[in-house]
Amino acid sequence: MSTQQAKKARSFGSAGVKTAAAMVLLGVFTAAAGQARADTVKLKFADWLPLSHYTLTEGVKPWMEATTKASNGSIQFEYYPAQQIGKAKDMATLAQSGVADIVHLSPAYISEKFPLSGVAELPDLFDNTCAGNKALMTLLRPGGFLADREYKPLGLRVLWAMTYAPYAIVTTNKKVTTLNDLHGLKMRTAGGAMDITASQVGSVPIKMTGPDVLPSLQRGTLDGMFVTLLSLYPFDWQTALKYMTTNVSTASFISVFAITDRGWKKLSPEQQATLTKTSEEAVRNICNWVDKTNKDIVERLKKDGMQEVLMSDAEKAKLGEKLAETRKRWASSLDQLGKPGTETLKRYQDAL
Questions:
Q1: For the domain 168-252+297-351, what is the CATH superfamily, name and number?
Q2: What pTM, to 2 d.p., does this model score?
Q3: pLDDT tens, position by position, for the chain (352 residues)?
Q4: What is the DSSP letter of 1?
Q5: What gap in Å lies between CA 156 and CA 148, rounded to an integer?
Q6: Rounded to whole angstroms, how far apart are CA atoms 138 and 136?
Q7: Measured distance CA(127)–CA(131) in Å, rounded
Q8: N- to C-terminal Cα distance for the chain?
């Protein structure tokens, strides 16, 4: 073999080795891509709110879309809203039984399982949603005071949560401009701390979930309720109400979106980081939307026939005393059951 032929042979051999190596690498990348596709996770998500509710349109839906996009499609949701696979009171059970990976928990409806989480539902604690949200998430994030005491023992990890705008007083036939006006009224409550508030101001608390309220207002089974005004339209409650006392803060309500340990472990570390990031963004987005929109809701309700009434400063002071007693009673009742009610209230107030 000539020298030139030998050089060509060596050059061809080297190129062959490079080609073979490239093919091996291509095979590795192809396998990795196939593995990534195989690792796409679909999370079954149970919710009880109707599709028209702003928590879904402004919070849940954008969060799911942002998560799927940020994960390059590797995190997907199988979403069941409007009580399709369970009512509000069933959500913890759906999670624990393995029916759902993610659930929308409303502690007021399941106060026997989440009594301490009701701290954010207490009256007269915050004036805007973002303040309430920020303080609540301080206690609910993994490692937080409430996370360790109420969610971790049930195999749940809080992804994000929201407080609702401070609650007004709405009624069917009686204006509420004084504390005495509340005496004897049959007021719908969500349970938990709101039951104490209703009895503290002399009303009759009647516990029921949102979807059951409208027929009760129409039949006269209820005289009114403590509620965030933004929640009237999604349930069509405004059609059965006449009056709203707007310059008070009688309660709040919280929505907690939690994933089961089983669902969390389905995710890779990268997917977990993505879901954590989009969940934090969801908290900020929904509270900003609520605070902005809540400023305009009174005028819209007035155009639709509801009458705004206001309490005087003197009457608000009287109401404030009763609401302060509500907070003390709530904390004391839990202390007596061996649960840290007073400590939880202090931690939440400190976070605020």
A1: Bacterial extracellular solute-binding protein, family 7 (3.40.190.170)
A2: 0.85
A3: 444 444 444 443 444 444 334 333 333 333 334 334 449 999 999 999 999 999 999 999 999 999 999 999 999 999 999 999 999 999 999 999 999 999 999 999 999 999 999 999 999 999 899 999 999 999 999 999 999 999 999 999 999 999 999 999 999 999 999 999 999 999 999 888 889 999 999 999 999 988 899 999 999 999 999 999 999 999 999 999 999 999 999 999 999 999 999 999 999 999 999 999 999 999 999 999 999 999 899 999 999 999 999 999 999 999 999 999 999 999 999 999 999 999 999 999 999 9
A4: -
A5: 10
A6: 5
A7: 8
A8: 87
Alpha-carbon distance of 23 to 29, in angstroms, equals 10
Where do you find CATH 3.40.190.170 in the chain?
40-163+253-294, 168-252+297-351
Residues near 229 by beta carbon (within 8 Å), at least 6 away in sequence:
165, 168, 170, 244, 246, 294, 297, 298, 301
* Cross-strand partners of 169: 226, 245
H or E element in which residue 77 lies: strand 75-80
**C-alpha–C-alpha distance, residues 189 and 276, integer Å:** 32
Nearest-10 crossing angle of helices 129-140, 269-294: 150
In our burial notation (b when 16+ CB lie closer than 10 A, e otherwise), range 154-180 reads bebbbbbbbbbbbbbbbbbeeebeebe
CATH (one of 3.40.190.170, 3.30.450.70, 3.40.50.300, 3.40.50.12160) for 40-163+253-294? 3.40.190.170
Q: How far apart are CA 231 and CA 217, in angstroms?
A: 15
